[in-house]
Amino acid sequence: MLAVVLVATALGLLASSAQVRGAYRQSLMDLFQSEARAVVAVRDAELQAVQAQCRRLVGLPRVFAAMSAWAGGEGQADDLYDRTSDDLKEFFRRAREVAGGGKSTAGYLFLDRSGKPIEPSGNDADIDEAVGQRWQREPVAAREGGDERLAYLAVGEVALQAMYFAVQDPEDGSRLGTLAVFFPFVSPQAVQAESGGQMRSALLLQGRLFGGQLPAELASSLTSAAAQDAQATACPLELDGQPWLARLNPIEAGDASVRLVTAASLVPMHQAVRRLLFSGLAAGSVGVVIGVVVALATARGMARPVAALSEAATRVGRGDYAVRLPVARRDELGLLAERFNDMTHGLTLRDKYRGLLDLVADPGIAQEMIGGSVDLGGVTTPAAVIFCDIRGFTPLTNSRTAHEVVDLLNRHMTALTEVVYRHGGVVDKFVGDLIMAVFGAPRGAPDDAERAARCALDMVRERERLNRIDAVPIQIGVGVAYGDMVAGCMGSEKRLNYTVLGDRVNLAARLCSAAPAGAVYVDQQVRERLGRGWTVAALEPLKVKGFDQPVAAWRLEDWKENA
Questions:
Q1: CATH classification of the domain holding 408
Q2: Alpha carbons 63 and 56: distance in angstroms, whole number
Q3: What whole-number distance in Å separates Cα of residue 479 and Cα of residue 457?
Q4: Rounded distance between C-alpha atoms, residue 257 and residue 361, angstroms
Q5: Is the dihedral angle over the CA atoms 268, 273, 276, 277 positive or is it negative?
Q6: Helix (H, G, I), strand (E, B), or coil: what is residue 264?
Q7: Residue 52 belongs to a domain
Q8: What is the spatial distance between Cα 190 and Cα 201, in angstroms, rounded to a whole number?
Q9: 376: which of 127, 290, 500, 529 is 20 to 30 A away, CA to CA?
Q10: Do 346 and 444 form a contact (C-beta atoms < 8 A)?
Q11: Strands (DSSP E) found in 169-222
């Protein structure tokens, strides 16, 4: 009988250790999958920002003209790059920030019809050759249509993401060439747990590991494992004499050769199993009967919290941050449950506040986002946009200190922002001494154009009022345009901005540039939507940059509410 009880005790301990192992491994696999989804989400947000900018760029007439000249043997490579450098300047500034302020491998390249690089001055020839050859070796993963491609390639010690955009003849749709934008893939940082466990990530590309968190000699075994399973492979590893578990996940549906490798140490699991076996044997030495009871209680007490943790981690991986674990004990598992609850609470706050409030500057847009009424993916909507710029800003600030210039601008921007809010508008952004405001996004109204016009006049009047009391007078010019435009959140994974773009936005900026000091210029669509009480003066059609034909414009003179 004693032997039976001892065998039962041993079997109970073995079964409990197997449960702990299985629950721990399943928890790791769920965390791996969650990490892979997070990396892909960050990557997709970055690519969306690049796509939006490059789609606009390849459709610009000046890019088409320069590419046509090159294809006809009449253009110069440097001229083609000079026409596009300003459009991509901000993107590459962010790429240098990701590189830690050091040399960044981000850049762009034009390819001719055959995929051969059109070499600019000062480019890295090795990168240009690799980007061009990857395009010629087709296929690369298609994204959102046949004219855009995504590829991963290894150049030296850097893994690059390259996006290809067709430059087409607008008349017959034929391909004149290709714009290739490339930037480094940045692996997520290693995570060190308090228990001693660690989770590392790297990119497996062309039989090599990139990211520096996993030893290079593991590349061959991981490549073999990936070849055996085209979807995702879990395989054991040994790092520094310790057991690890790794999972490989494809991060691009059209290119199965690119895998995100996520690995975690199994040492905490083995430690937990050893503690379990030791406690069971110690209880058995006190008494067989008591030992059996204690062993079963210990097994159940250990397996249930770990299983609950695994289930909760699965729900977090699916995006359910409201899950909470009960804290019914004061040991390591109880402390782990408290830390897990703190983590999910932090994720909830981050998504609700940092993910909404920190990404926008205007409180009206933030409130719309919290209410869930803003389409973050972008929509086409009719709206009015205002550009207001200071005239003679450079000579105005040449003789002043930096502190005086900032104070002057802050007082100016504060006063005009209040005017925008008073008329129900949204301040989109401040660019130097320029203010951009929107009426109609994210929520529109039938009188958006007229409210924008009234706001523009009041901005001029408010500036005139301030000039009578301020020591430094400031003169402004204002442009207003109305029509369909694209509205949505755009930017990078670190900072997003809800904004609008389109030819109406460009026209408002051009009208602002053309308006003299103290004047408000509006386009035809704004003029058509003005009600009674307005005094306007027709202008000679304006020839503005970016528009083939002169545009009709009017100068707002006055508005009386009771007319």
A1: 3.30.70.1230
A2: 10
A3: 10
A4: 41
A5: negative
A6: strand
A7: no
A8: 7
A9: 529
A10: no
A11: 175-184, 191-192, 198-205, 208-210
Tokens of 7: 């065998």
User: 248, 241, 298: which is closest to 266 by C-alpha?
Assistant: 241
Domain boundary among 150, 168, 184: 184
- Are 387 and 482 within 8 A, CB to CB? no
Amino acid at 200: R
> Which residue do the tokens 């406690």 mark?
279
Q: What is the pLDDT of residues 357-400, one digit of tens each?
A: 444 445 555 555 555 555 556 789 999 999 999 999 888 888 89
**The domain that contains 162 carries what CATH number?**
3.30.450
Q: Which of 162, 184, 206 is the last residue of a domain?
A: 184
Residues 6 or more apart in contact with residue 486 via CB below 8 angstroms: 378, 379, 380, 500, 501, 502
Structure tokens belonging to residue 129? 């050759």
Question: How confident is the model over 429-485, as pLDDT tens digits?
Answer: 999 899 999 999 888 899 999 999 999 999 999 999 999 998 889 999 999 999 999
Residue 211 domain flag: no
Full domain range(s) for residue 407: 374-559
C-alpha 83/C-alpha 206 separation (Å) is: 35
Dihedral angle, C-alpha 344, 347, 349, 355, nearest 10 °: -160
Helix axes 402-422, 448-467, angle to 10 degrees: 140
Answer whether residue 461 is part of any domain.
yes
The residue with greater pLDDT, 344 or 346, is: 344
Model confidence pLDDT, tens digit, residues 282-302: 665 655 555 556 656 666 666
Number of domains in the chain: 2
In-domain check, residue 110:
yes
pLDDT at 295: 59
Amino acid occupying residue 21 = R
